[in-house]
């Protein structure tokens, strides 16, 4: 039996926000995931090409290991910057929606999205900075050298 119109009207409508969950999730996770992938791939590549037999080699054994490391670093940096741009966009949209709702709006969803976008922007910018510092360290220190 279908619910009556009075029952449907009595049920609260789920609040919706212009920012969807995928945009929020990508804004939060893009830069940390890029940093994690960069560290995992480059360290594994350096370990296999420089310490293949538990003895440090003066040069990478795999041809193109340095080029591959540079490409991975560049792709991860681009991924992190894209995540930062999306986090910035999400923050602007959340601020606009909150402003349009009014200063005295006590809507829980607006506050939650504002907090998520603010924390996302701060953490993403931090991880982009970490990606840049990791890339600079890769240019200065040889993967086969001692730290």
Task: Note the topology.
Layout lengths: L4 H6 L10 H30 L14 H37 L6 H33 L7
Helix pairs in contact: 2-3, 2-4, 3-4
Keywords: Membrane, Transmembrane, Transmembrane helix
How would you explain this protein's 3D organization?
There is one protein chain. This protein is mainly alpha-helical. It has four helices and no strands. It has one domain (20-140). Residues 8-13 have low confidence and may be disordered. Keywords: Membrane, Transmembrane, Transmembrane helix. The chain crosses the membrane at residues 62-88, 109-133.
Q: Which features does this protein show?
A:
about 150 residues, transmembrane, about 0% strand, membrane, 4 helices, about 70% helix, mainly alpha, transmembrane helix
Short recap of the structure:
The protein has 147 residues and is mostly helical. The protein is 72% helix and 0% strand. It has helices spanning 5-10, 21-50, 65-101, 108-140.
Tell the overall outline. rod-shaped
Main β sheet profile: none
Number of helices: 4
H-E string: HHHH
Count of all domains: 1
Q: Identify low-pLDDT runs.
A: 8-13
Question: Which bin fits the share of residues in helices?
Answer: over 70%
Please state the CA-atom Rg, rounded to the nearest Å.
23 Å
Q: What distance separates the N and C termini?
A: 72 Å
Mean of all residue-level pLDDT scores: 81
How many β-strand stretches? 0
Structural class: mainly alpha
Strand composition percent:
under 5%
Transmembrane segments: 62-88, 109-133
Keywords: Membrane, Transmembrane, Transmembrane helix
């Amino acid at each position: 039996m279908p619910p009556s119109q009075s029952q449907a009207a009595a049920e609260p409508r789920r609040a919706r926000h212009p920012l969807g969950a995928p945009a929020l999730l990508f804004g939060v996770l893009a830069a940390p995931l890029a940093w994690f992938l960069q560290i995992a791939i480059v360290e594994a590549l350096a370990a296999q090409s420089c310490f293949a037999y538990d003895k440090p080699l003066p040069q990478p054994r795999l041809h193109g290991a340095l080029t591959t490391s540079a490409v991975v670093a560049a792709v991860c940096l681009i991924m992190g910057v894209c995540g930062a741009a999306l986090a910035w966009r999400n923050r602007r949209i959340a601020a606009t929606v909150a402003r349009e709702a009014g200063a005295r709006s006590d809507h829980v969803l607006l506050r939650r999205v504002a907090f998520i976008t603010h924390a996302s922007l701060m953490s993403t910018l931090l991880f982009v900075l970490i990606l840049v510092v990791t890339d600079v360290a890769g240019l200065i220190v040889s993967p086969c050298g001692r730290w």
